[in-house]
Design a protein that fits this description.
The complex is a heterodimer. Chain A is α+β, with helices and mostly antiparallel strands. Chain A is 37% helix and 14% strand. Chain A has five domains: 117 residues, no CATH class; 164 residues, Barwin-like endoglucanases (Beta Barrel); 143 residues, RNA polymerase Rpb1, domain 3 (Enzyme I, Chain A, domain 2, Orthogonal Bundle), CATH 1.10.274.100; 146 residues, RNA polymerase Rpb1 funnel domain (Topoisomerase I, Chain A, domain 4, Orthogonal Bundle); 46 residues, no CATH class. Chain B is an alpha+beta fold. Chain B has two helices and four strands; from the N terminus they run βαβαββ. In chain B, strands 1-3-4-2 form a four-stranded mixed β-sheet. The structure holds magnesium ion and zinc ion (3 copies).
Chain lengths: 876, 80
């Protein structure tokens, strides 16, 4: 490794202000003319583009340092301001200094004992390296309320700050010159009380007499295709400043009337202010001739695309790729399918050794266009050879151990995969590369939940770590299988989804018999090639295996579990092993004896008993193998046994429909009765509620009950022989509520948790009488989705639906901002080896992480140990 | 007029104790920190006044914790 030599060591950094003298000292030229280029296109001497300010055009040399464009850092010039102007960036400090000091003698307005006391306190704090400047607010607050100077006896006039840069004392506007004079009077000792370190800054420097002119490298002009030069916004602003400055000094010299001079002075202040910050409140922003708002210094730094958030905290990177994602159930959760086209561009540096030199030689010969090849070769002295243009045969001969070859991304390489918004740790995980044909990244469906990805056009990013250490860290810490347990709740966030659940249920439910061929086919699909167990059923000479036997072959030996499946109906008295719907799961020594596999066994983000146990007791590799196989096996089972759903899954017989409309009629009647009681003034109010509120609550209760009863009627006809119901009850997709809304009744629409009421005066739509409180006038949808909504119902449904959309939009914006603030506050905290949580100063934040010192990602649902599970495992 | 009220009796106030000098030194040694790296508590804090702690003391606070059951923390008393 080539070590960088350190030419100088930084001992400490001081932040201060530049004095006018310093501004002049760093300046390579005084700028006097607002013009930029002459007719021939050459920069005008002492103009804004003076060639001593640095070079941006390739080929030219800088007249100050002699370097070419790119090497010349640029050099400051300056403008001598005809009259001083306040610096907006420091305006609050200027205000504090003026308020806290005497208008005559300039001393801080504190009587002696207090003055001395504060001074001593600040000196102490400085020596203890504490934040001494935070005392300022207190000092300013007490000093600014003093009415008579304790030092010279002068009576103080109230001082008002007018945005953005003016101060009014009594009825008198202070000019920047007045302000500067006052600031000059403050002693070095007093300046400390105001939070300014006199060694690096003087308050009068906050009022500028000389303005630095930034180097041209900071504001390069661009030449358009048409040959027209277009100047940077900063240059435009500097032109304005110099023009006004010139006019101001001419007018002063000519002895122009006071008013004209004042006006020009104010204009100069405006231009300098907007040059620093074109977003200050109180003045209109400076605009380009086209009407576009100028982007000046502060705008370059602030905001999402500003220097800090856009270029320093986050920047564009090399060795990355982005494309659309699509699913591939045949690759492991640890893998990612990378298109060959991307694999040819992303490269990994490999150092040649005597063992791999022949392989690398071949890669060099193949070059950048034939996969697998290499893009670049680096000799030990650091010289790079681009394989696109070199004689590759020749280069292949020169390579020796110690050379580095940047070869194409290949199968088994480790990469980091990411989907925005990266809200948690699992948003970036390490995957092993599988180079595949096609143009999309391929990923296993089980990793959709942690990335929150789907395939409706989502794009994702890949980053290829370039160093062995980084690659090893990614492999050990970031690989998908290491992230199965979420640190958020201590359970699996990676697991089966959708058809994985349905398939496992179809396979493991009672009555699934498989022939030898079928069994072998399923096991082959799941990647299991051991012998079949003894058949469970023999009928008329044919041997049959039950699905539970097949699924058991995925389970590790010694696994003991007892739990209730998702489909469990929570009967008052559980019949356990005798359960009619096989909802009581018993696994002994890795054999599924009773019960079905459904969401409760291995669905991501569910209780996930089986997968959870395997990760925690058998390790992440065993868990990955189980998940890869179980999902493939389940998909194969669903395909073999047959599974489909369609709209007739929500069919219910006519007598059910009749009973549902009876229920709904009854409910409407009840609502009308309630309204009648209310109108008669006989309604008994709930405690703490008005009559109207009570009525609403009673009506909502009745309507909700009505929908539930309608749903229950439909549910009687929606049993586990129905595919849509299988999906809902096993937790694969959808809910019984979804189904009954399709089959029976959609129910009450609401906005902000209340029945719909807004629109017209006293009514939702002109179809109703004002004050109609009945069910259908206030957004009760009695139709089912399948029957279709009536026009008014449809309208109400859209009202409720919109609230949902607005909520999600608002919520994402709010939670995004909250996440930023949290990250900024917490990013420097870490858990030390002694178990304490410390900040960047080593100060203790928590004495044990989470008070119990447990890492939730290695916990059992947040607890360090689960005693019941251990007993169950041992006792069996 | 006011009734003396022991805030230490309130359910929301965890137990605060002044650590004896020897114990305080042990705590600092255990975590290898200077007192200013501990969480701070102002001498004007009602609990500090109630137990009569002075700036420079280290308090041991025993809290009920939803994760650990009982958690111990330390705070360094500062002026004001
Ligand atoms: Mg999507
Ligand atoms: Zn230069
Ligand atoms: Zn005075
Ligand atoms: Zn049951």
């Amino acid at each position: 490794m080539i070590m960088m030599r350190i030419p100088k060591l930084i001992d400490h950094v001081d932040f201060g202000m530049m004095s006018p003298d310093e501004i002049r000292k760093i300046s390579v030229t005084k700028i006097v003319t607002a013009d930029t280029y002459d007719e021939d296109g050459y920069p005008i001497e002492r103009g804004l583009m003076d060639s001593r300010l640095g070079v941006v055009d390739p080929g030219l040399r800088c007249r100050t340092c002699g370097a070419r464009a790119g090497d010349c850092p640029g050099h400051f010039g300056h403008v001598e301001l005809a009259r001083p102007v306040a610096n907006v960036g420091h305006i609050d400090t200027i205000y504090n200094c003026l308020r806290a000091t005497c208008r005559k003698c300039g001393r801080v307005l504190l009587a002696e004992p207090k003055h001395e006391e504060y001074y001593k306190r600040i000196t102490e704090m400085r020596e203890a390296r504490q934040k001494w400047w935070e005392m300022t607010n207190k000092i300013v607050r007490s000093a600014s309320t003093t009415e008579k100077c304790p030092h010279c006896g002068e009576k103080q006039a109230p001082l008002k700050f007018e945005k953005p840069t003016s101060f009014v004392e009594g009825r008198n506007r202070l000019t920047p010159s007045d302000v500067r004079e006052r600031l000059e009077r403050i002693t070095n000792e007093d300046v400390m009380l105001l939070g300014i370190n006199p060694k690096v800054a003087r308050p009068e420097w906050m009022v500028l007499t000389a303005l630095p002119v930034s180097p041209v490298t900071v504001r390069p002009s661009i030449t358009l295709e048409s040959g027209v030069r277009s100047e940077d916004d900063l240059t435009h602003k500097l032109v304005d400043i110099i023009r006004i400055n010139q006019r101001l000094s001419e007018n002063i010299e000519a002895g122009a009337p006071h008013l004209i001079v004042e006006d020009l002075w104010e204009l100069l202040q405006y231009h300098v202010t907007t040059y620093f910050d074109n977003g200050v409140s109180g003045i209109p922003p400076a605009r380009h001739r086209s009407g576009r708002v100028l982007r000046t210094l502060a705008q370059r730094l602030r905001g999402k695309e500003g220097r800090f958030r856009g270029n320093l905290s986050g920047k564009r990177v090399d060795f990355s790729a982005r494309t659309v994602i699509s699913p591939d159930p045949n690759i492991s959760i640890n893998e990612i399918g990378v298109p060959e086209y991307i694999a040819r561009i992303l490269s990994v540096p490999v150092r040649a050794t005597e063992h791999d030199i022949e392989d690398l030689r071949n890669l060099i010969r193949r070059g950048p266009d034939i996969y697998p090849g290499a893009n670049c070769m680096i000799s030990p002295d650091g010289k790079r050879y681009d394989l696109r243009y070199a004689d590759r045969e020749e280069l292949a001969k020169t390579i020796e151990p110690g050379f580095i070859v940047e070869r194409h991304l290949m199968d088994g390489d480790i990469v980091m995969f990411n989907r925005q918004p990266s809200l948690h740790r699992m948003s970036i995980m390490a995957h092993e590369v599988r180079v595949l044909p096609g143009r999309t990244f391929r990923l296993n469906l089980s990793v959709c939940p942690p990335y929150n990805a789907d395939f409706d056009g989502d794009e994702m990013n890949v980053h290829a770590p370039q160093h062995e250490e980084a690659q090893a860290e990614a492999r050990i810490l970031m690989k998908v299988q290491e992230q199965i347990i979420s640190p958020r709740f201590g359970g699996p966030i990676i697991g089966g989804i959708q058809d994985h659940i349905t398939g496992a249920y179809l396979l493991t439910r009672k009555g699934t018999l498989l022939t030898k061929e079928q069994s072998q086919q399923l096991l082959a699909a799941g990647g299991i090639f051991t012998d079949l167990p003894k058949p469970a059923v023999k009928e008329k000479g044919t041997e049959y295996w039950i699905g539970k036997q097949i699924f058991s072959m995925l389970l590790p030996k010694g696994l003991n579990l007892t739990f209730k499946a998702k489909i469990c109906e929570n009967c008052a008295r559980c019949k356990k092993e005798e359960c009619e719907i096989d909802a009581y799961v018993v696994i002994r020594d890795g054999q599924l004896l009773h019960g079905v596999i459904d969401a409760r066994s291995y669905k991501a983000l569910d209780r996930c008993e089986v997968l959870d146990r395997i990760v925690k007791d058998y390790g992440t590799t065993a868990a990955r193998e189980f998940l890869d196989r179980a999902t493939k096996l389940s998909i194969a089972a669903a395909a073999m046994l047959g599974f489909t759903t369609s709209i007739d899954d929500e069919d219910i017989p006519p007598e059910a429909n009749e009973r549902i409309s009876e229920v709904l009629d009854d409910v409407r009647e009840k609502v009308n009765k309630l309204i009648k009681i209310y109108d008669a003034g006989e309604l008994e109010p709930f405690p703490g509620r008005s009559l109207r509120e009570t009525l609403e609550m009673r009506i909502m209760e009745v309507l909700a009950g009505g929908r539930d009863r309608a749903g229950e009627i439909a549910e009687k006809y929606l049993g586990l022989d129905n595919n849509a119901v299988i999906m809902a009850r096993t937790g694969a997709r959808g809910s019984m509520l979804n189904l009954t809304q399709m089959a029976a009744c959609v129910g009450q629409q609401s906005v902000r948790g209340e029945r719909l009421s807004r629109g017209y005066r006293g009514r939702t739509l002109p179809h109703f009488k004002s004050g109609n409180l009945g069910a259908e006038a206030r957004g009760f949808v009695s139709s089912s989705y399948k029957d279709g909504l009536r026009p008014l119902e449809f309208f109400f449904h859209a009202m409720g639906g919109r609230e949902g959309l607005v909520d999600t939009a608002v919520r994402t914006a709010q939670s995004g901002y909250m996440q930023r603030r949290l990250i900024n506050a917490l990013q420097d905290l870490r858990v030390e080896y002694d178990g304490t949580v410390r900040d960047d100063r080593g100060a203790v934040v928590q004495f044990a992480y989470g008070e119990d010192g447990v890492d939730p990602a290695h916990s059992d649902n947040g607890k360090a140990v689960n005693v019941e599970k251990i007993i169950e495992r041992v006792v069996g | 007029m006011s009734v003396e009220f022991d805030i230490g009796q309130h359910v929301l106030v965890p137990k605060h104790e002044i650590l004896p000098k020897e114990k305080a030194r042990e705590v600092l040694e255990r975590y290898r920190i200077s007192p200013h790296q501990l969480p701070l508590i102002k001498s004007s804090d009602p609990v500090v006044k109630a137990i009569g702690a002075k700036p420079g003391d280290i308090l041991q606070i025993t809290r009920n914790s939803p994760t650990a059951g009982r958690a111990i923390a330390y705070r360094y008393v500062i002026e004001e």
